[in-house]
């Protein structure tokens, strides 16, 4: 089991005292920073001011981004597998 270290972060107006693996600490801190930056952006551009509204909007925005990424990743994976299959077929035909 990986060693856990304390990681204190602020997300919105809430402070979290977490215990995370050493390899995860950087990701947790960067994620909190991204959320706070996106909350500031939404506050300025959309005009929301309530923390729960900002967090809900940011969560929705990140969920949409994640779904788009998953879709692109899946499409890319299919393309790569098709190309590998084509190359395999080509190599088999050359070796016969």
From TrEMBL:
GO biological process: cell division
A Pfam entry, by short name: ZapA
Highest rank taxon of the organism: Bacteria
Keyword line: Cell cycle, Cell division
Name this protein carries in UniProt: Cell division protein ZapA
InterPro entries the record matches: Bac_CellDiv_Activator (IPR053712), Cell_div_ZapA-like (IPR007838), Cell_div_ZapA-like_sf (IPR036192)
């Amino acid at each position: 089991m990986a060693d856990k270290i304390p990681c204190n972060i602020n997300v919105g107006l809430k402070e979290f005292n977490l215990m995370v693996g050493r390899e995860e600490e950087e990701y947790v801190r960067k994620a909190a920073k991204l959320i706070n930056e996106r909350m500031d952006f939404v506050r300025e551009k959309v005009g929301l001011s309530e923390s729960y509204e900002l967090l809900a909007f940011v969560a929705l925005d990140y969920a949409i981004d994640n779904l788009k990424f998953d879709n692109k990743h899946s499409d890319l994976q299919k393309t790569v597998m098709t190309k590998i299959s084509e190359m395999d077929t080509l190599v088999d035909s050359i070796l016969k």
